[in-house]
Give the backbone structure.
Amino acid sequence: MIAVVGGLVAAVCWAASALCARRSARIVGPQAAVAWVMLIGLVPLTPAALLVGTPERLDASSASWAVVGGLGAVVGLVAMYAAFREGKVGVVAPIIAAEGAIAAVIAIAFGERLGLIAGVVLCVIVLGIVLTSVSPDVDRRSRTSSGATFAILAAFCFGASLYGIGRAGDDLGAVWTLLVIRLVALVALVVPLLALRRLRWDRSAAPFLLASAVLEIAGGSAFILGSDDGIAITSVVASQNATFIVAAGYVFLGERLGRAQAIGVGTVLGGVTLLAGLQA
């Protein structure tokens, strides 16, 4: 049950963060938006890590998985922000939600076991995600493929990141795992942007960047907690953020869903509910 709860909390936080990121990316650009979110996140995480102290189980393996999680998160976030800037959230988000299935496959490949029924339910959830993403747009104003390339890249990067974070979190704990991700972002993204003088700032984006930074930390912490009970299940449940984003797009952004997209979203919701019951 911890895996499901952790995944759902992560999904809510990441969905809210993505909606904030959609706005900030349109103001300062995807790369700068990710860079600022990661820099802001360093402010609370650095003193928190000093208070916690160096993890006793820190070694080359756990550090490597944390770096994998960091690189995947950084590239995935940049791709996701670009996808949201280019396409409709109701179409892009479900494609990115394939991250959970990718992480689950990686977890199974590394030896994690799932029950037969849970495995079937995970497949149903994935089918719902696919149905939502490939269905035509009801208003025909934007093509289903709009932002799809960035969304697919984000899905694969996030899938690897989720597994890396889950593995590192077992040994390093939430604080240090999340800190390493932001340190990776500092080296791989912030410093190059500063060197190229492309780290844009706009005061109007500040509230959205701050909200994204806080929500990313909260979602990452919830995911790490849930992954202690099972990375595969937590990853797929966390991909439920796509459903929340699609719903928000309908309520707040005026986006409409086609019949097939609605069926896909309903399938995902039903699958997650069933999965929660199985894990209770």
About this structure: Residues 148-195 form the longest helix (48 residues). The CA atoms of residues 28 and 200 lie 6 Å apart.
